[in-house]
From TrEMBL:
MF annotations from Gene Ontology: 4 iron, 4 sulfur cluster binding; catalytic activity; metal ion binding
Keyword Repressor in record: no
Keyword field contains Secreted: no
GO terms under biological process: porphyrin-containing compound biosynthetic process
Protein name, UniProt field: Radical SAM core domain-containing protein
PROSITE patterns xrefs: RADICAL_SAM
Gene3D superfamilies linked to this entry: Aldolase class I (3.20.20.70)
Gene Ontology, cellular component aspect: cytoplasm
């Protein structure tokens, strides 16, 4: 029997210093750090045994890793303790990092120490994702971040002066952007001084009852801000390679590309979600119990998801694989081209540009309406 090797894993660290009021990710502030970190680490041990069984049932196993992503929450709070734990955890389970494994570690300004970072570097971390969000002290406060502008500068200065590989997380569509004239381009200018190899720019999405729900900018403003930022970063040498992601050449997030290419990714930790391609199965870890929920996808759901994910990245993708109605597909793509939504086109093989990314959901509706997916 052919055993498939899964070479990517996401691990979720569910603790933060403060709970930002817009955030919907699973996280807690530990009341008793020692106890709660210990329980979390025990849950990873127990969870890994379940994960191994799940993979086995699906003729799979974890191979030498190409990507490991430690996200949260705020993983940088786990510090030296976390690095020591994960080192032994991987060793004890014969989980090997492949020779060019991309090992990403999320860091929050004001939520790391140099000793902690060095310990993580020693166990293989070679890429950092910095949760900066804004470079305007006023907006940092407005969006309820616990870090201040000094923390931001300290973090950016540290990572750039050490010439580490890092990505910056930023947000647009912030409350009161119009009223207080948020100048996101000036903020990004300041970021670029530090020469990040990758920038993630998310449009703020909010939960029901969000405190600033009446202070969010309108759609027209957000669309303008998104396209302004995209044009600016493209001019400055970044590729807008995914709806919310920009990178220098060859510096895309390999881990996230796995999702966008609908490839298998293992996952561990409360609320983490994994995907087993051949088994057409998604699994989502429960939040308060070491157990997961399995979701079997139908062929139809797999197809829709594959198209949606593939159109998120600006790599050529052949839509004719999904339909026999090539004439209709041609017509729809002609329209998209006329509307200047395409980055590349060769027949039915296309990729979207920033204008297309912005209205991806309505383009999916277009394909669906014309029965092309
Ligand atoms: C889950 S967070 C983890 C990183 C880190 N805890 C932080 O907040 O900086 C990953 C990224 O998702 C983005 N994010 C979180 N909540 C969001 C929301 N409601 N809308 C848009 N982006 C969000 C932020 O840019 C954040 O850096
Ligand atoms: S620090 Fe990040 S994960 Fe934690 S509450 Fe804030 S946005 Fe959410």
């Amino acid at each position: 029997m052919n055993i498939r090797e899964i070479r990517s894993i996401y691990i979720h660290f569910p603790f933060c210093r403060h709970l930002c009021n817009y955030c919907d990710f699973y996280k807690n502030i530990p009341k008793n750090k020692e106890k709660e970190y210990e329980a979390y680490e025990a849950s990873l041990v127990k969870g890994f045994a379940l994960l191994t069984d799940l993979l086995k049932e699906n003729d799979s196993t974890l191979g030498a890793l190409n990507t490991l992503y430690l996200g949260g929450g705020t993983p940088s709070l786990w510090g030296e303790r976390g690095a020591a734990f994960l080192k032994n955890f991987l060793l004890d389970r014969n989980i090997i990092l492949g020779p060019s494994c991309e090992f990403t570690f999320e860091v929050n300004p004001g939520g790391w120490t140099e000793e902690g970072l060095l310990a993580w570097r020693d166990i293989g971390v070679n890429r950092y994702s910095l949760g900066i969000q804004s470079l305007n002290p006023h907006f940092l406060k407005l969006i309820d971040r616990v870090h201040n502008i000094e923390d931001v500068h300290e973090t950016l200065n540290y990572f750039s002066s050490k010439k580490l590989s890092f990505s910056v997380d930023f947000m647009l569509g912030l409350p009161f952007s119009k009223k207080f004239k948020r100048d996101i381009i000036s903020e990004l200018e300041e970021i670029l001084v530090h020469d990040p190899e990758h920038i993630s720019l998310y449009i703020l999405t909010t939960k029901a009852g969000y405190i600033h729900k009446d202070h969010l900018p309108d759609d027209e403003y957000i669309e303008g801000e998104y396209l302004r930022v995209s044009n600016f970063l493209i001019k400055r040498g970044y590729d807008h390679y995914e709806v919310s992601n920009f990178s220098k050449k060859g510096k895309e997030s390999n881990h996230n590309l796995q999702y966008w290419k609908s490839e298998s990714v293992a996952a561990l930790g409360p609320s983490a979600t994994g995907f087993l391609k051949e088994a057409q199965t998604r699994f989502k870890w429960k939040m308060t119990q070491v157990d997961f929920v399995l979701e079997k996808l139908t062929a139809e759901e797999m197809k829709l998801e594959e198209v949606y994910m593939a159109l998120r990245i600006n790599r050529p993708f052949d839509l004719s694989m999904f339909t026999d109605n090539l004439l209709e597909l041609e017509k729809v793509l002609d329209l998209w081209q006329e509307r200047k939504l395409l980055n590349t086109r060769a027949g039915s093989t296309i990729s979207l540009n920033s204008n297309g990314f912005l209205i991806l959901d309505s383009l999916m509706d277009d394909l669906f309406k014309h029965e092309l997916v």
